[in-house]
């Protein structure tokens, strides 16, 4: 018997968190991704050296960029899409943390390719091994998540070197790779700060995809659809909370981030399931919010009359970002 894990609860939570909600924004991401892959295939078919295209995916934090891209790449890797050389193509992914040097970036990329980098290797040797491993394993693309960490606000020379490295992956004649850079809005600003020639080339090679936060006036039907979709998956009726006041409060409490909305819905449904109820109620969202923020359930955006004045969305997000125990969000 496992005394630390309630297996029934864990399996139920995993079922909800593994769910995929087909957001309309995924269509634009997939469209641009498909164009990059089709362009790659067509050029590879000629047998001549070519440049690959890529994506620059930006948006505010906790909005669901990472999981949307994760899902897309997982589907691509599982598809077994064949390239002109007869081998199934793959993408690899890695997340950047904190400050990265060119050597750090190369070593992390090599590890994503399942090849450990030697600490004694020089940056150019590491990047050469990245090329060899990618070609050997038919890896045609790399997704760098949180790519803003490759840059700083003060290191102009280092930033240019990083941009040159990214550009080299796209333009390497021996084995070009599709590049997906994703991150917060500041990532696009770093690209904009590049010199005119580098900026022109990157604009040409990277297709921009922007993720928007929730605009309740335009998105209220989508928010409701998300809630009912997860409720159906949990076999819990969401009808008791089917009103605009609740959904506006939900969006406000989650700083208008799709990822946070889904996370809170999942947590509330878990609490409801644990209580043996088949109908959702406001109490479960009050409790889920209190547990997530470590706050009293008596002070909640779901019950406060003047919640817009008492709860600032940006400060709520800062609180979550500072929470070392926060878990990933499953927006798709």
Verbal overview:
Helix 1 (7-17) packs antiparallel against helix 11 and helix 11 (258-274) crosses helix 12. Strands 2-3-4-1-5 form a 5-stranded parallel β-sheet, with helices on both faces. It has helices at residues 7-17, 25-46, 65-79, 102-112, 123-136, 156-171, 186-192, 196-205, 216-234, 244-253, 258-274, 282-293, 307-310, 313-321; strands spanning 54-59, 90-95, 139-145, 178-183, 206-211. It is elongated, with a radius of gyration of 22 Å. With 332 residues, the protein is α/β, with parallel strands linked by helices. Helix 6 (156-171) links the parallel strand 3 and strand 4 (178-183). The two termini are 35 Å apart. The chain folds into 2 domains: 25-211, 3-Layer(aba) Sandwich (Rossmann fold), CATH 3.40.50; 214-321, no CATH class. The longest helix has 22 residues, at 25-46. It holds the Pfam family AAA_22. GO terms for molecular function: ATP hydrolysis activity. This is ORC1/DEAH AAA+ ATPase domain-containing protein. InterPro entries: AAA_22 (IPR049945), P-loop_NTPase (IPR027417). Residues 52-188 form the ORC1/DEAH AAA+ ATPase domain.
- Secondary-structure class: alpha/beta
User: What is the CATH third-level topology name of the largest domain?
Assistant: Rossmann fold
* Mass-distribution shape: elongated
- Placed side by side, the strands forming the largest sheet appear as 2-3-4-1-5
Uncertain runs? 323-332
- Give the domain tally: 2
Number of helices: 14
Rounded average pLDDT = 88
CATH H-level homologous superfamily name of the largest domain:
P-loop containing nucleotide triphosphate hydrolases
The percent of residues in helical segments reads 40-55%
Characterize the largest beta sheet: strand count, sense, and whether it forms a barrel.
5 strands, parallel
Alpha-carbon distance between the termini? 35 Å
- Report the order of strands and helices: HHEHEHHEHEHHEHHHHHH
The CATH architecture of the largest domain comes to 3-Layer(aba) Sandwich
User: Please, what is the oligomeric state?
Assistant: single chain
Strand content: 5-15%
Got a strand count? 5
CATH class of the largest domain: Alpha Beta
Radius of gyration over alpha carbons?
22 Å
């Amino acid at each position: 018997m496992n005394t630390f894990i309630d297996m029934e609860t864990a399996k139920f939570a995993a079922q909800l968190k593994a769910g995929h909600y087909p957001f309309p924004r995924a269509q634009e991401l997939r469209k641009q991704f498909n164009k990059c892959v089709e362009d790659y295939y067509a050029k590879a078919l000629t047998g001549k050296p070519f440049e690959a295209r890529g994506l620059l995916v930006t948006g505010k934090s906790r909005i669901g960029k990472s999981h949307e891209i994760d899902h897309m790449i997982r589907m691509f890797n599982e598809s077994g899409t064949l390239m002109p050389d007869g081998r199934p193509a793959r993408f690899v992914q890695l997340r950047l943390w904190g400050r990265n040097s060119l050597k750090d970036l190369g070593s992390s990329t090599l590890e994503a390719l399942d090849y450990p980098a030697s600490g004694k290797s020089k940056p150019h040797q590491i990047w050469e091994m990245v090329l060899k491993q990618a070609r050997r394993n038919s890896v045609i693309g790399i997704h760098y998540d949180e790519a803003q960490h490759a840059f700083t606000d003060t290191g102009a020379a280092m930033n240019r070197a990083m941009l040159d490295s990214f550009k080299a992956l796209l333009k390497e004649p021996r084995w070009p790779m599709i590049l997906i850079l994703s991150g917060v809005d500041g990532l696009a600003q770093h690209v904009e700060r590049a010199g005119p020639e580098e900026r022109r080339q990157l604009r040409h090679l990277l297709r921009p995809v922007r993720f928007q936060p929730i605009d309740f006036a335009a998105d209220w039907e989508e928010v409701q659809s998300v809630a009912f979709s997860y409720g159906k998956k949990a076999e819990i009726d969401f009808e008791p909370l089917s009103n605009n006041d609740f959904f506006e409060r939900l969006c406000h409490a989650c700083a208008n981030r799709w990822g946070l909305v889904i996370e809170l819905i999942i947590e509330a449904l878990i609490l409801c399931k644990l209580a043996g109820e088949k109908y959702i109620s406001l109490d479960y969202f009050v409790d889920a919010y209190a547990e997530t923020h470590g706050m009293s359930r008596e002070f909640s955006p779901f019950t406060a009359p003047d919640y817009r004045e008492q709860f600032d969305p940006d400060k709520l997000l800062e609180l979550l970002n500072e929470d070392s125990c926060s878990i990933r969000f499953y927006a798709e």
